[in-house]
Each structure stands twice: as structure tokens, then as C-alpha cells.
Design a protein that fits this description.
Layout (H helix, E strand, L loop, with lengths): L1 H18 L14 H29 L2 E6 L4 H12 L4 E8 L3 H10 L4 E4 L11 E2 L3 H7 L5 E4 L7 H9 L3 E4 L2 H17 L4 E3 L2 H11 L6 E8 L17 H4 L9 H9 L1 H13 L7 E5 L5 E7 L4 E5 L5 H9 L29 H12 L1 H19 L7 H10 L10 H18 L9
Parallel strand pairs: 1-2, 1-5, 2-3, 3-4, 5-6, 6-7, 8-9
Antiparallel strand pairs: 8-10, 10-11
């Protein structure tokens, strides 16, 4: 304030010289220079207000949460980008990664002035890419100053970045189900060791996370996970024999990547979510239910001890759970519209375990132990890749998965190396044994 007072005095002196006034008292005769007692405040106030406004803007920018977005060109990544665009005073992108879409990656890096980038799936053609190759995500995370990592990497490839994120003291906004499915216990211990927070990003677990946080954990008796039913929810089990890849990729409610869209059609994604909920929220499998909810507006529910149900209800818009993860533990403004329940009907029904065999197998795997969770995920990834390459039929996915699960995966994972070892072994087993259905999977 003293600096502004001096500036005010200098401004006033210049004005008095220009007006040929000796002192401010001459302006109000007989008042003994009252203005001299307040002149510094009058003339320093504008400068002080300008300084305050400037420092407020700079302060906001300095306090912005620094975000690493892994898989920035995928559905999770692009939705996260939308949130940063809408909340520039709250978030700053510190680093970006993509699999093969180099042009899109560079475009986003240029838009947000990001210098740390990684391309994991191919050799980059531009020297503007900072990291590339198999270990590029590890280096990107370790060498970037950030507060939170949004892990939108698909499949088991997302586990290692989750590990590194927590080991480097960053919070983890987790869209990668496989991280918890394959190594839930180890990941939870890692988060505790490094004081990191795991915030689920997929709509169902985001809903459960916030619902449980609104209650006391010991008051929660049951979790109800909702499912859209995928592309084939209105078909019979017999109709699935003739479905094509193009049919499976037509999700009725969500716009997602190919692998998760196929998982939705088979309900393997819901199977993975059951295992994830069991591991992440420490709820018994007998207290986890799945309901088909075609409208995808009720994202999950919890039932408390006295029988009441609490639901998280919103539009089917992935930006909402992602925003909630980024702003946690606060809730941000409504940026993308609110759901109006007028004239809306909500339906719920039990899934058919014969039709959705992958959901049944997920419960069976989770009951058998964590090694079976790893094998379930690995077999599904191998089978879905084969289906996407049109080497097997849709109905072969559960057949291949069940055959893989028939082997012994009882070994407990004591460390992450054990997890990766079981993952590799189950993939080899899957590829070796499913030749019995007379189709080759590479």
C-alpha cells in the first residue's frame, strides 16, 4: 500500500503544479488542507484496484490444476479437452499423449501450448513429439509437473501409466477399468503409500464413488450398477448367431471407442465394472447387482442398510463424470446442461445371463480370485481384437473366455510383476486353446 501512496502523491503533485495550486487546502479554503489528508488514497485507489485485478488474474492462472491427459484423441481425452476449454481458469493441460493420431495430438498441443507430448503406437514423423515408443508414457508422467492424470488409455496397456501416476504423487482420474480389474489391491496400496487419490471417471463408478461419499461407508448395503444393454439389448440369444461387426459397433446411447463398444454389446464392460466395484469399493459380490436401464440416465445406485435407494441421475454425457473427477473434492458449475425429468420414463430390468454370458463369467471370475480377474480381462481383449479383425464371430467371445478361465489361475499377485506375468500367460493360453473353434487369432 505504501508504494501506491507514493505514486498517488506524485500524481497529485503533478496535477497541483499544472493548476498552479500550492497545496490542496487552497481548493477548500479554511479547511486546513483536508484534501492533503486523503489525497494519497484518492490518487492511489485506481492503481491499487488495477494491481488487485492483475494479481487476481495471475493468481487464478497460478492456482489452475495441472492436468496430464493420456489418450487425448480418444473419447475420454476429447471430452476432457472440452472441459478444459470450458474452464480455462481452473485447469491447465501439462502434457498430452495419443496412440497413433499424431496430427490430432500436435493440433491439441498447439491449441493449449503444451510442450510435453507422447506418441505410443508408432514412430512420430514430427520432431515436436517429446516422447515415443513403449515406455513413453512412463517418461511423460515422471518428467511432467502435474496435479492429476486422466488415464483414458484403453485396455491392459493402461495399468502401467496408473502405477507411475501414483508413484509420482499425482492424483488419478481413472477411466481405465483394467487398472482395478487386474491389480485393484496393489493399486489401492500404492495410492495409500504415496497419498494419491483414485477418482473413477466412468459414469457408473463415478456415480458410486460420489454416492458413497455422501453417506457413511458402513451404511451402504448394496451397489446397483446400471447397463444400457448395448447394441443387442432388444435381440434374443438366438439372434446373436448372425450379428455382424458393424451391428455391434452401433451403440444406442454412447459414442465410444471400438473395443468398449463391443464390450458393451457383450456386457463384458459391465462384467469388468462388477469386478472393479468389488475391488475399489470393497463390497461383497453378493451385494453387487446389475440392471439393464436403456435410457442411461440413472448411472448407478446404492442401497443403504434400512433399504432406501440413492441414485445419481444425469444426461448420458461423459463430460459430467470427468468434470467431477477434475474438480474433486468440489463440484463445479453445470456447463453442459441439466437433465429435466419431465415426460421421461425410466425402465429397469434384470439381464439374461444366458444371453450376456460375459457378465456371468465376470461374477464367476471374481468369485474365483484375482488371478481369474486378470485372465478374464486378457481373454476378452484377445477375443474382441479377433472379432474386430473379423476372425471370429460375436458369439465366440464368451466361448473363448470361458475356455481360458477353465485353467488354473489361482496364483495370488504379490506384486505388479506377478500381475503382468499372469496377464501374459493367460493371453498365450487363450491364443493356443481357441484354435479348437477352427479360427486363427493373432
Amino acid at each position: 500500500m505504501a508504494v501506491f501512496t507514493i505514486v498517488g502523491d506524485l500524481i497529485e503533485s503533478a496535477m497541483k503544479r499544472s493548476a498552479k495550486i500550492k497545496d490542496s487546502g487552497n481548493v477548500l479554503p479554511g479547511r486546513g488542507g483536508i484534501l492533503d489528508n486523503i489525497d494519497s488514497i484518492i490518487f492511489s485507489a485506481p492503481a491499487f484496484l488495477l494491481y488487485y485485478a492483475y494479481t487476481s488474474i495471475i493468481g487464478k492462472k497460478m492456482n489452475r490444476k495441472k492436468v496430464i491427459i493420456l489418450g487425448c484423441t480418444g473419447s475420454i481425452g476429447l471430452n476432457t479437452i472440452d472441459i478444459v476449454r470450458a474452464m480455462p481458469d481452473s485447469f491447465k493441460i501439462a502434457a498430452l499423449s495419443a496412440n497413433t493420431r499424431e496430427k490430432e495430438l500436435l493440433s491439441l498441443a498447439d491449441e493449449f501450448n503444451v510442450t510435453n507430448t507422447a506418441l505410443t503406437g508408432k514412430t512420430p514423423s514430427s520432431d515436436k513429439i517429446t516422447y515415443s515408443g513403449p515406455n513413453s508414457l512412463d517418461k511423460l508422467i515422471k518428467e511432467t509437473d502435474a496435479d492429476i492424470v486422466v488415464n483414458g488409455v484403453a485396455g491392459s496397456e493402461g495399468l502401467k501409466p496408473s502405477i507411475v501416476s501414483l508413484e509420482t504423487g499425482k492424483d488419478l482420474a481413472l477411466a481405465n477399468k483394467e487398472t482395478i480389474v487386474m491389480a485393484g489391491g496393489l493399486i489401492s496400496k500404492l495410492a495409500e503409500k504415496y497419498s494419491g487419490t483414485i477418482i473413477p471417471v466412468d459414469s457408473e463408478h463415478s456415480a458410486i464413488f460420489h454416492l458413497i461419499n455422501s453417506q457413511k461407508k458402513e451404511h451402504v448395503r448394496e451397489i446397483v450398477i446400471t447397463a444400457s444393454g448395448g447394441a443387442f439389448r432388444d435381440l434374443s440369444k438366438e439372434d446373436l448367431i448372425n450379428v455382424k461387426l458393424e451391428d455391434a459397433l452401433k451403440h444406442p446411447n454412447w459414442s465410444m471407442g471400438q473395443k468398449i463398444t463391443i464390450d458393451s454389446a457383450s456386457m463384458a464392460n459391465k462384467g469388468l465394472e462388477v469386478i472393479e466395484a468389488h475391488q475399489l469399493f470393497h463390497v461383497g459380490l453378493e451385494n453387487i447387482k446389475v440392471l439393464i436401464h436403456p435410457q442411461s440416465m440413472v448411472h448407478s445406485l446404492i442401497r443403504t442398510n434400512e433399504g432406501s435407494l440413492y441414485a445419481q441421475i444425469s444426461k448420458p454425457d461423459m463430460r459430467i463424470p470427468i468434470q467431477n473427477a477434475l474438480t474433486y473434492p468440489e463440484l463445479g458449475p453445470s456447463l453442459f446442461g441439466s437433465l429435466d425429468l419431465d415426460n421421461i420414463s425410466l425402465e429397469f430390468r434384470k439381464p439374461d445371463f444366458e444371453k450376456y454370458r460375459m457378465l456371468y463369467l465376470a461374477f464367476k471370475a471374481a468369485q474365483s480370485g484375482e488371478g481369474y480377474n486378470i485372465a478374464y480381462n486378457a481373454a476378452n481383449e484377445v477375443a474382441v481384437a479377433a472379432f474386430l479383425n473379423k476372425k471370429i464371430n460375436f458369439i465366440d467371445i464368451p466361448v473363448i473366455t470361458e475356455k481360458t478361465l477353465s485353467h488354473n489361475w489361482i496364483k495370488k499377485a504379490e506384486c505388479f510383476e506377478d500381475v503382468f506375468e499372469t496377464d501374459t500367460a493367460s493371453r498365450k493360453n487363450c491364443r493356443r486353446n481357441h484354435t479348437e473353434i477352427n479360427r486363427e487369432i493373432k
